[in-house]
Amino acid sequence: MTWNEIYQSRLVTAEEAIKAIRDGDKIVTGFACGEPFGIERALVEHYRDYKNVQIINMLTLGDSPWCEPHMKGHFTLNCLFASQSNRKAISTGICEFTTSHFYEIPDVIKNYICPRVSIVMVSPPDKHGYVSFGTTVDYTRGTTDYCEIVIAQVNKYMPRTFGNSIKHVRDFTYFVEIDEPLPEVKSLEITQIEMQIGKNCAKLIHDGDCLQLGIGGIPNAICAQLWNKKDLGIHSELVGDGVVDLLEAGIINNKKKQTNNGRTILGAAFGSKKLNDYIHDNPSVELHPIDYVNNPIEIAKNDNMVSINSCLQVDLLGQVVSDTVGLNQFSAVGGQVDFVRGATMSRGGRSIIAMPSTAKKGLISRIVPLIAEGSAVTTPRNDVNFVVTEYGIAQLKGRTLKERAKALILISHPRFRPYLMLEYRKRFNEEVFSSEELKTQLSDIKEQIENTVGDIKEKLLDDLKCLLSAN
Ligand code: COA
Fold this sequence. Notes:
By secondary structure, this protein is of the alpha/beta class. The chain is built from 17 helices and 25 strands. Helix 15 (417-428) packs across helix 17 and helix 16 packs antiparallel against helix 17 (456-470).
């Protein structure tokens, strides 16, 4: 049969394709911009026809219909990266959550979760009969090698990407043609605080470095600060829109990379139409499976690798919490540790954890004496080197416990410094700053506290009084 005859013989409606699913099945689906919503909608509509089916998905940018009460006994969601639509369901036990470093996820899904069915989204076939996994290669492409049933939503909006991102039509059981725009991750306006964090991070980025940029508001702020650099490279599990202008301007040109020279390497694209248009049919951008892209050994093959990721909390020892808030799962480790370790092993490499100094509209400090009860450490203190906030850079590797704590206090929000200094004293039985150093801190602290409104002001003033009376 020609590839076109194979394709036509397997072309069905979503309703016909999902008849291949049995009670008790585990179904792995493509994620983020590559989630096959067209076929999922058919499953949701026909939910009564199925019992005890588990959906395995890394991260959804849409709803999580599987967590609705009426789905009980029919479908459950097992996700590997919590999102807005399923955080609550995870904390109430309705949604399952599996934790794993991203580079291990292809192995974890294949050999430990063992799904029988894969549902993915791909581009239409090219003239040779190859479809592209476009934005979402990561663990998704590999599922077609081991799942018994592979159903593809064929979507003309899915970009065709280069790298290890294609499969022949013969590798699929069914095709369902549904054209719909991909879900987008739109860039929010960069805040002043993020801009300052971007500036501080840019001080640690040099010409010729190879970058990994994480997710959230900070990566775009960093990109905005890179216009005076040259010959940068990208080897990253994903990127958002922020890199497109730098790529087009040749600031990122991947010229100095030891592996994949001249190519931007990604596991997934995580942006809007702007990014998808850029990666479409663009031989300078390659998407590869995540067990290659995020493998710390592969990452480290590039010299001067710089990883930049964000977090929710850092304690005074330098332990980094990025994916839980107390007992609640907020996101996942993703590739944070993969890249922190890869960058550390790279010759000339650096790992950066960048975050605003406060959260909850400035009401709480992200730098804390102890991580919140129930939180999980995402990146252990022995892996962490640079921590950056809008107040500066703390360098932790090779530092004693006291030096680490002091460096972190110096980049905390001045309002919370009295509290952190008191906690330092409790832990180490000495003052963190000499009286000279304290004097230089005080005016800044007082001004910040005076500018604070609400109940928190009283608490901050108490901490300050307590600190001053002890000195
Ligand atoms: N305690 C309580 N709430 C906190 C908090 C803390 N210590 N820190 C942050 N929050 C709140 C924020 O206030 C915000 O809530 P709000 O919008 O109601 O104010 C929310 O949590 C999100 O925080 P924010 O810092 O804005 O998140 P972000 O979108 O910038 O993402 C991470 C930051 C850390 C969640 C994200 O980068 C992540 O999940 N990282 C782990 C995975 C990873 O690094 N992968 C590698 C690269 S993809």
